[in-house]
Amino acid sequence: MDLNVIYESMRQDLELVENRIKVVSQVENPSLSELLDYSLKNNGKMIRPVLTLLSGKFYNHDMDRLVSMAAAVELMHTATLIHDDAIDKSPVRRGRATVYEVWGEEKAVLLGDYLFAEAGAFTASTGNIRAIKLFAATLKTISSGEISQAFDAFNPDQSRHQYLQRIARKTASLFSMATESGAALSEAPEESIQVLIEYGYNLGIAFQIVDDILDFIGSEEQMGKPIGSDLAQGTLTLPALLIMEYYPEGNPVKRLFDNRDDQDSIRLAIEQIRNSPVIEECYQVASDYIQKACSNLKVLPQNETCQTLMEIADYIVQREK
Amino acid sequence: MDLNVIYESMRQDLELVENRIKVVSQVENPSLSELLDYSLKNNGKMIRPVLTLLSGKFYNHDMDRLVSMAAAVELMHTATLIHDDAIDKSPVRRGRATVYEVWGEEKAVLLGDYLFAEAGAFTASTGNIRAIKLFAATLKTISSGEISQAFDAFNPDQSRHQYLQRIARKTASLFSMATESGAALSEAPEESIQVLIEYGYNLGIAFQIVDDILDFIGSEEQMGKPIGSDLAQGTLTLPALLIMEYYPEGNPVKRLFDNRDDQDSIRLAIEQIRNSPVIEECYQVASDYIQKACSNLKVLPQNETCQTLMEIADYIVQREK
User: Which residue of A14, A27, A74, B66 has the fewest C-beta atoms within 10 A of its own C-beta?
Assistant: First the structure.
């Protein structure tokens, strides 16, 4: 199902979030305003703020606070991407030049800091201590995941367990923060909050696995960035990890990790991964997490909101970009 | 007066803050733990957390929360320094190799993010919404000040007003956050909080002016970093700004800004600034801010704590490093 169709019933709520984010770039300093304007022009999928909105809709909620929290979640995500691009020296994301590419590393780092702070300010404005503590804890978790990834770059000796642990911290933590914060703002009973945390967490794991698959099998045009970019950065994702498991004697991933400048090995690794059952196996792992994500949703009120959560879960594994 | 003498009466409180900060590096991931351990080894002046402790001591306070807030203030400061060093590619700070120099830019950026989050977590743990909102707003202010500085690099057309505005955002905002958060945590009457905000703000301006003076007249050994490093980065600080005002026809600062690689001009600028009345004038400006900082302290209870605030103010302009 197309994401626009899934979002249909919540178009108005989502516009409130988009408008709240737009206000962020209205600052006095014209240079900062330009940077903000560029980085906040939205062409992302908005899945994380949508999860906050949906998770907050089951029980009593104050729409204004929910919108602030959803904006915070999206801004935090944007800030991490800006820092990622700066440290990876990535020129393109979502088909557009990155802040790093246009303004350089210094401004990208500082802009990321600014947006973390803005996300924190939005979270603080909810006045909800649980959401605020969660925000800080999640940023710690994400950064520690990224630090692990940096230390593990070009290390061929990594297990599936390590991979899952890393993407749990790097990606799933923000997904479960999105759902938990929404639920916490709506006075949901603790049992429901826990179900939504589990949903967000497992959805996040599946989302990252599919991201890692698409980094190999997607088209550069659809992905808006070069194919095989994780591998080029020395990041061992599930498809590459499985190739290493299947062909321990010798494979292009291992060869690349032994010689980082070997562009030929990147090309060969992409080819081998695309033409192997590895991709199907990765999709199976992602689907298992999706199933896990949805398994307890029946505890929640069975309404349109719950239906949308299930549609998003289906979308995650079917998406092509 | 020596800082150790000034801190004498609060040695125990300060140790509580240092111990709370030490706990931060006790994390599972050994690589992250090593990074944290290195970056949190304290050889700074601890002025900011001391301001929080002192500002919180005039009225009813919970020591545990005050210590958390003081730790948050110091961690936020540490995080900004780590990011500054990464984007300036500074090899040395406080006489020690920077995180950037030892681990590289990627890890420095991510470690800074982690420490911002840790600072946020400490702030959140106070449960005080005013302190939490202040934390987020201050990080926005600091980042926007740094962004202005980045855009103004090597721009010779800057006024004193612009300089003061920039250091207000970059430095004074954290000083006034330190005092305001302490005061807010101690149920101080609003009038007292405002006096402490004013004190912190003016102290911060004076502190940065003296920092900018010492960057020219200090010794490399005492400063723990190369002399003239601001100028080398293209940052126009008060001493350099006054040289530009005094010698509009031609001066080494202008020549450096016209030709960034002109090492000779840096040397000449340092020499000219050291041997001119510019330094005395800068000290006068700093002293005026110190006087302003202390002017309303009489509104507060006249006790040992208030005495210490005045001693710190004196120290700020007398310090040699």
Answer: A14
How confident is the model over B32-55, as a mean pLDDT? 94
Nearest Cβ partner for A136 among B107, B117, B137? B117
Q: How far apart, in Å, are the Cα atoms of B107 and each of A101, B25, B112?
A: 20, 15, 8
Interface with A, mutate which of B113, B118, B152, B162 (most A CBs under 10 A): B113
State both tokens at A99: 């802040």
- Smallest CA–CA distance, residue A104 to chain B, in Å, is 10
Stated length of chain A: 321
Tell me if A117 and B111 make a contact (CB, 8 A cut-off): no
Question: Taking the CA of residue B71 as centre, how many other CA atoms within 13 Å lie in the half-sphere pointing to its CB?
Answer: 29
Q: Which residue has the tokens 């603080």?
A: A124
Distance, in Å, from the CA atom of A183 to the CA atom of B312, rounded to the nearest integer, reads 47
Could you tell me the CA-to-CA distances from B204 to A72, B166, B299 in Å, in that order?
Answer: 30, 12, 20
Nearest CB partner across the interface for A140, out of B31, B118, B143: B118
Is 80 exceeded by the pLDDT of residue A241?
yes
Range(s) of the domain holding residue A214:
3-318
Interface touch A113/B83, C-beta < 8 Å: yes
Question: What pLDDT sits at residue A42?
Answer: 66
State the average pLDDT over residues A179-194.
97
pLDDT tens column, A150-186:
999 999 999 999 999 999 999 999 999 999 999 999 9
Round the average pLDDT of chain B to a whole number and report it. 94
* Shortest Cα distance, chain A CAs vs residue B130, angstroms: 9
* Neighbour count for residue B58 (Cβ, 10 Å): 23
**Count of alpha carbons within 13 angstroms of residue B261, beta-carbon side:** 0
Q: Would the pLDDT of A83 be above 70?
A: yes
What CATH number corresponds to the domain at position B265?
1.10.600.10
Contact status, residue B294 vs residue B313, Cβ threshold 8 Å: yes
State the ipTM, two decimals. 0.95
Give the separation between CA B2 and CA A111, rounded to whole angstroms. Answer: 38
How many structural domains comprise chain A? Answer: 1
DSSP character for B276? Answer: S
Dihedral of the alpha carbons of A4, A9, A12, A14, in degrees to the nearest 10: -50
Q: How far apart (Å, rounded) are the C-alpha atoms in residues B187 and B146?
A: 32
Judge whether B102 is closer than 8 Å to chain A, CB to CB.
no
φ/ψ of residue A46, rounded to 5: 60, 25
Distances (CA, A) of A221 to A43, A59, A94: 14, 41, 9
Question: Does residue B300 have a pLDDT over 80?
Answer: yes
pLDDT at res. B42 = 66
Q: Do the Cβ atoms of B156 and B236 come closer than 8 Å?
A: yes
Q: What are phi and psi of B96, to 5 degrees?
A: -135, 150
Q: How far apart are CA A31 and CA A34, in angstroms?
A: 5
Furthest C-alpha separation in chain B: 60
Q: Report the SS3 class of residue A97.
A: strand
SS3 of residue A172 by DSSP? helix
pLDDT band at A250, cuts 50/70/90?
Answer: confident
Degrees to nearest 5, angle at CA B156 with B152 and B160: 80
Does an H or E element contain A96, and which?
strand A96-97
